[in-house]
């Protein structure tokens, strides 16, 4: 069985491309050291390998189902939660005073990556819980934190985010779940929530739902939406779990993949009152939720990266072992077949995967690095880093979601019929990852967010920061050997993207908002590829700097990085132009299309 | 539930783009008329709707399994075979003297399309049977035809093609199944065959395997491969089914999709002798098999088209019904949400699907039309048509396999979370179609076939014919309204592709065969898109000619064709350039990559 993750690449990304080893120089991380980080990642590998990877297929084949009114998961999921809890991973990122390790975001993200790669379905339970706790840490009152957040950080209770409703998925502005003040500071919550992951299970003593709802009399649209803490079981004054809060499971969704994560339809206020506590101010619910959502979007992107990465490693192992066919130049039918990794087209499929998943990993960790810069880095670059992270978030979410799916298709293709069977994991990864372009904001939403909001936000400062950072890395690449192709290709993609953005932004007033956004997907594609090209430039700079002093496996590793950068430069970045041209042309084809013509 | 197929589009392709109504003017089809064809297609729709579509999901959820030593399918599959048989569809294409209808290929293909769209898994049983009979019709002896082919045409017995072995899938040259002469004209077949679709079931009285094997002492490689008829049950002199022929089911493969089709590992000669009859001459097995294989490749392409088409129609229906969000220009939160088909990005996803599946359908039926031209058309164009069909076959097989998968991904995306659940069929189509880029020759094999063989075959005459045909359609497009974008885009793609081919072919001698073929996938992509662009040009010409005289739904239909052609021109054809540039550059990236660097 192939490993689910490349520990060597993770080290490269953290310590060679990023300067994670310097973080202990900051006050918040003063107790840390690279050794501490490595120990945690080593522990994560072992726990993920032993308690998560062990039941990925089992959970896929035995999806959650209801037995005697309770949602039943495979028993191994419970063991996994126990191991994750005992390792202290629920609170790894939290403050020391809350029992946490104060891990930097980049290390926490790298730690999480192991569980996503090993078993994406089971990993959802802790990650939704951690996201929930993160939101409470920022917006909930001290009393709420004491009551609801601490048990999450201990891993005793689990969390969800309950946003969508049957008639309102992407269009959250239209949610109708209501919150009626009960006069004692609490609210009676009533309504139906759809697509709630981890919405019901018996893995934890309690489930804390973060629920978007409208307080009676609130205005229409997003300004009328508030956020509530709604526990599955009411919490007693002493913090213990009490009676049912009347959150009723109305149904389970049956998905193509990601089957280990129970996905639910929940009725609030059925058969009795459902009590909720308001978080923060009324009408701020969507803003608070987006704090969690932005983290969740990076998490989705990283989940996609890790599924793609696991598929890549599985297909690589297969390609190194399986013998089939001969080189076109070999006419000797009696010669033995070659290992399929020797066929150029198989190497294309493998290099393509490598360029997608390692490029995606670099981006996901870069985003986490930006979070650290914002939280603990120098104050003078904080605002720039915030704007850059805002700009990158739709790409961090959507690019790996889309291109890991392509990588996984390539993994299946490398393995042929074998890859299409359930004897190997790649078909499962392919089914799992297809969710990622949908949840936490579809690709369409990400495109609109990028072109309609992030590109022009704060006078375009985020975009300016991006250009400056890329420029700095282009300068760092000069004089280094083997980098010409990637450098030239990045510059070209950057110029094409920049010119297209300038053109479409210049036309925006006359186009109007609908036509302006009609080709937002091309903006997402064009900027996504350009950003990943930049990520490859950064990796290539590091590899080129280290290659001369490297020997053996290390030298091969750096050569592989340079070749993958070259691949992305020659096979992928030239695709930017078609998207840039389309965007710049303000093409009306989809805008003009009529329902009746389909 | 959305329809699984657009009867209007099928009429358009057959009678407006192609001149199928003129075929009854040929002697072989003298008994036919357009009304006959329409009646057959109407019957096909009804049988497919009632007996195939009814159990597509049921067969997906209850894949074939072994009970008491027998492979058990869902009972509805048996009813489907009965209905297909009673409709006379097994022999629809066969000669009248064999009980057939002598249907033209293009009509037979259109008839088959219904079953592929309604239930791809169950449709495999009759289509493998028909392919088997087609091969026997050309290469088997009259005695063999009498004994083995007639029961297939009656639908009493079913057929398979047994090529691959556990160690030899794409690399058929390495098969080791042996055939030992028994002295009475028959052979004892011994070995193991892998990935045999419909290899074992109880749907028919007998199963006739077409088996590739080596006669003892035959040379290594493809020249030593012969083709044998191997029945599951031996056939008595009176044609009745006798004792077991010792073809033993060694295992079932468990696939991601296409689950209704049983897929088997078979041992020949286990527990007793397996008798086989040689077809034709020894050493010609692969050549004979490729006669069936070429038809099978068109069939795979059409299967992909129809899965994509069914997904498109399902997502279209959903998009017309589901309300979500508002236009960016609408700031009134109290206004009702719009139907999602009104969002430009959803229309992009729908137009993209439409352009892929209707483009693919046009190509699949054009290929069938070429088969008719070859078999019953004017003698002076026969050779040209043969070469053109040879050239197009790798594209007919691989382009829809790849782009229907993209279309199905778009269908899921349109439907969001709903599309990802088993409550709707699109996730199933997505799993089903992922097989198509693998079986009957992987995408890698199609690329090598196209660039390494078909492009230069007969002094490049096939390519020349392609250029002439496209040129003729470009001329036909002149002066017609609304065709500028598609015409200009096709010319551009054609010029880019042509120049890239010329460049790489010119360098072939110095590159050597391995490096020459290293970027064959780009040739496949570039030519595939160009050919589909041509198919859209043809459809657009017809639509533009008919639009002025059309009213109501018909006018909308033609406007939709023109808009989809425009979409392919503006959103897809510009992607040709990156592939053409890569091919022309004889890029060495994948060729130079080393195993150790991954």
What report would you give on this structure?
The structure is a homodimer of 598-residue chains. By secondary structure, chain A is an alpha+beta fold. Among the domains of chain A are: 7-153, Acyl-CoA dehydrogenase/oxidase, N-terminal domain (Butyryl-Coa Dehydrogenase, subunit A, domain 1, Orthogonal Bundle), CATH 1.10.540; 158-283, Beta Barrel (Butyryl-CoA Dehydrogenase, subunit A, domain 2), CATH 2.40.110.20; 457-598, no CATH class. Chain A is built from 18 helices and 12 strands. Chain A has helices at residues 7-17, 34-52, 56-61, 75-86, 105-118, 120-139, 142-153, 285-321, 344-376, 382-419, 426-433, 443-454, 457-477, 484-516, 520-546, 552-572, 576-584, 589-592, and strands at 65-67, 70-72, 158-162, 178-181, 186-197, 207-215, 225-231, 233-235, 241-244, 247-252, 263-268, 275-278. A 5-stranded mixed beta barrel of chain A has the order 4-5-12-7-6. A two-stranded antiparallel sheet of chain A has the order 1-2. In chain A, β4 and β5 (186-197) form a beta hairpin. Chains A and B meet through α9, α10, α11, α12 and α14 of A and α9, α10, α11, α12 and α14 of B. Chains A, B: Residues 49-155 form the Acyl-CoA dehydrogenase/oxidase N-terminal domain. Chains A, B: Its cofactor is FAD. Chains A, B: The chain crosses the membrane at residues 296-314.
């Amino acid at each position: 069985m192939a490993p689910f993750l490349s520990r060597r690449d993770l080290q490269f990304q953290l310590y060679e491309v990023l300067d994670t080893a310097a973080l202990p120089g900051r006050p918040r991380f003063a107790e840390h050291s690279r050794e501490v980080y490595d120990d945690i990642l080593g522990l994560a590998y072992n726990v993920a390998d032993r308690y998560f990877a062990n039941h990925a297929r089992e959970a896929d084949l035995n999806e959650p189902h209801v037995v005697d009114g309770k949602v039943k998961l495979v028993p191994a999921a419970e063991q996994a939660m126990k191991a994750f809890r005992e390792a202290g991973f629920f609170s790894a990122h939290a403050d020391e005073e809350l029992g946490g390790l104060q891990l930097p975001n980049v290390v926490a993200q790298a730690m999480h990556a192991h569980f996503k790669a090993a078993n994406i379905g089971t990993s959802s339970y802790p990650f939704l819980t951690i996201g929930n706790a993160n939101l409470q840490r920022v917006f909930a009152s001290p009393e709420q934190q004491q009551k609801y957040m601490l048990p999450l950080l201990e891993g005793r209770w689990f969390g969800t985010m309950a946003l969508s409703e049957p008639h309102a998925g992407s269009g959250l502005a239209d949610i109708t779940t209501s919150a009626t003040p009960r006069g004692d500071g609490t609210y009676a919550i009533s309504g139906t929530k759809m697509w709630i992951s981890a919405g019901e299970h018996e893995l934890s003593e309690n489930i804390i739902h973060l629920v978007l709802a409208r307080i009676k009399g609130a205005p229409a649209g997003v300004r009328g939406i508030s956020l509530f803490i709604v526990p599955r079981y009411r919490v007693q004054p002493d913090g213990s779990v009490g009676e049912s809060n009347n959150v009723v499971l109305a149904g389970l969704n049956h998905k193509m993949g990601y089957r280990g994560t129970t996905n639910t339809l929940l009725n609030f206020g059925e058969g009795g009152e459902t009590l909720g506590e308001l978080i923060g101010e009324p009408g701020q619910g969507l803003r608070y939720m987006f704090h969690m959502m932005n983290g969740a979007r990076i998490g989705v992107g990283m989940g996609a990266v890790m599924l793609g990465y696991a598929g890549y490693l599985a297909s690589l192992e297969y390609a190194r072992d399986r013998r089939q066919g001969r080189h076109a130049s070999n006419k000797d039918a009696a010669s033995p077949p070659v290992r399929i990794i020797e066929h150029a087209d198989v190497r294309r499929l493998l290099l393509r995967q490598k360029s997608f998943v390692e490029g995606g990993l670099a981006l996901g960790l870069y985003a986490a690095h930006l979070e650290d810069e914002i939280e603990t880095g120098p104050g003078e670059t904080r605002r720039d880093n915030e704007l850059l992270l805002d700009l990158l978030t739709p790409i961090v979410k959507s690019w790996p979601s889309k291109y890991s799916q392509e990588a996984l298709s390539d993994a299946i293709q490398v393995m042929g019929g074998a890859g299409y069977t359930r004897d190997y994991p790649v078909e499962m990864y392919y089914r799992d990852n297809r969710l990622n372009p949908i949840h936490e904001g579809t690709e369409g939403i990400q495109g609109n967010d990028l072109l309609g909001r992030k590109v022009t936000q704060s006078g375009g400062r985020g975009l300016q920061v991006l250009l400056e950072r890329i420029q700095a890395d282009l300068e760092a690449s000069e004089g280094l050997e083997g980098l010409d192709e990637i450098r030239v290709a990045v510059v070209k993609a950057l110029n094409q993207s920049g010119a297209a953005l300038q053109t479409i932004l210049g036309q925006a007033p006359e186009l109007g908002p609908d036509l302006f956004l009609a080709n937002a997907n091309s903006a997402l594609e064009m900027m996504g590829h350009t950003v990943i090209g930049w990520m490859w430039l950064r990796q290539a700079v590091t590899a080129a700097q280290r290659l001369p002093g490297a020997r053996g496996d290390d030298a091969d590793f750096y050569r592989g990085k340079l070749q993958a950068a070259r691949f992305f430069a020659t096979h992928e970045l030239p695709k930017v132009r078609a998207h840039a041209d389309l965007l710049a042309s303000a093409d009306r084809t989809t805008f003009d299309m009529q329902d009746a013509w389909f």
